[in-house]
Every structure is written in structure tokens, then in C-alpha cells.
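Worked example 2:
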Amino acid sequence: MSEHTNTRTRSTETEAENERDETTGCPECGGKVAADSEHGEAVCIDCGLVVEEDAIDRGPEWRAFDSAEKDQKSRVGAPTTNMMHDKGLSTNIDWRDQDAYGNSLDSRQRQKMQRLRKWNERFRTRDSKERNLKQALGEIDRMSSALGLPENVRETASVIYRRALDENLLPGRSIEGVSTASVYAAARQAGVPRSLDEVAGVSRVEKSEIARTYRYVVRELGLEVAPADPESYVPRFASELGLSEEAENRARKLLGNAKEQGVHSGKSPVGLAAAAVYAASLLTNEKTTQAAVSEVADISEVTIRNRYHELLEAEQDLAFV
């Protein structure tokens, strides 16, 4: 059979599969048809009619029982990611001077690999824009790691920085400042916010520049960033202080009462969360010190004391209503 005939046959099979996918109803009763991948069948959920059998399994022929085995057997590379300036599509040359069997290379091969690494690095960053992006994404990864942010936040921060670079927002601003603002905005969008003091602690720029750049980036890119919710800080503070789930729930309840009374308006969400955690620890007999909470939340003990009294008064006022 010729190659043209094989291509036409595969095209016909694909069209037939697409038609079956579009008609999801059972031909007998009109019920919903579900795919049973284990038996290679398509079965009607309502009447049990086998609509299709002996379906072709287009997945891999191998099985894997953990992530390491899956990575070892997979024949494809890593997925593309915005966290790398070239989205992970370029070649990486290992820094170790070893062959595939772990044997050391001779001096001639080592010189050759060193030369290949140098040219590979030059080709990966061909212009100033790519060099800018490489430096910024490295900063985003470093700060996100120091702040304990998950991978989805790093991905979002990388996308925000790419947009800022494409829309020419960087002239007059430092790469580190825009990178830090991107991390701060991404963390708030993902619901795992970090305070400005925490972000400034791992950044190479001043707090005032981070705040100014953040406002500029959000305004120019039209980012939708909701005000930080004090409750989003509670789990992290409670975990770092070693408090129980009961204390964490009590802190959430205190913050909920404060919102009903309007006490939270105009107050720092970090300060309210820290005070709620401190008050909850006392109410649940899991006593901790204001100094410990202050260190975890990176906020002064005076703020904790002031917010602590306000939260308890709000709860008492609500109880008398």
C-alpha cells in the first residue's frame, strides 16, 4: 500500500473519530455515552449499549508507578514554561565533563565541550531583550524560592514581567524593581500574598521603589488585584508558630467578626492577621508570645497589641448585639 493511501486511511479514521466525539448521544435511547478506557469501549450510561469497542489506545505502551520512573521512560522533553527566557526550547549542555556512562572526558574533549557551552550561551541570548529577560526571570525564581511561593505564582510573575517588557514599561526602572513588583502582584493574584516588608527583605531594591513600581505596573497592564484578605495570611502564620487547627479556625472567626463590625477598614491586613493569630492562641490555651508572632509576621509588637484589643472588642460588641 502506498504512502498516499496510508495517509488517506488515517485521515478517514480521524474524521470518523471526530464524528463519534461530536455525537455523544446513544443511538438507542439518546442517553450519554461514556468512554471506558480500561476495556477500550464506549458505553451508554443509561441503557448499557456498547456503542464502540476495540478502541485504539494512543497512550504509551509502558507503565510507570512513580514520577521518577515516568521521567526515565518518557521519550519527550520538558513542557514549555514562561519561567525561562527561551521557554525551555533551547539546548542545555551539562556542566560536568562526563560522557553518557559517567566516564571523565579527555582534555581534548573537555576543551571542545567548553567551547560548545560558550557558543550555546551566546546563541541563547542573542539580543539585549533576551539578556534582560534572562536576568529578570532568574531574579523572580530566586525571590519566589526565598518567599516559599508555589510554581504557579512564579509562572504568573514571569508572564507579568514579559507583558511589561513587551509594552515597553521598563525604561527608567530597574530590572530588579519590575521583577519584584511582578512577584508581589502574582502572589496577591494567586491568593498567597506576602507583605511588602517580606518581599523587600528578599529583594535588591528599596521598599519605596517596589511600592511605586508595583502601582505603575498594575495601572499600565490593567491587572485585577483584589485587596489582600487578612485571612489569607492566617494559615502561614499559624503553621510557622506551630499552632493547632483549632487556633487557626478561631483566628478566622475573629477576623470574620472584625469584618462585620468594620474594624478591618483602613488597617494593615498583615497586622490584623498577626493580632488574630495571637489572640486565638491565647483563647485556645496555646500561648505564644507577641515577640514570636512579630518575628513571623515581620510587624511590630505595638501593632499587634493595638489590633489585638480591637479584635476582642469587636467580638464582644457582636456578642451583645
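The chain has a mean pLDDT of 83. The first strand starts at residue 33 and ends at 36.
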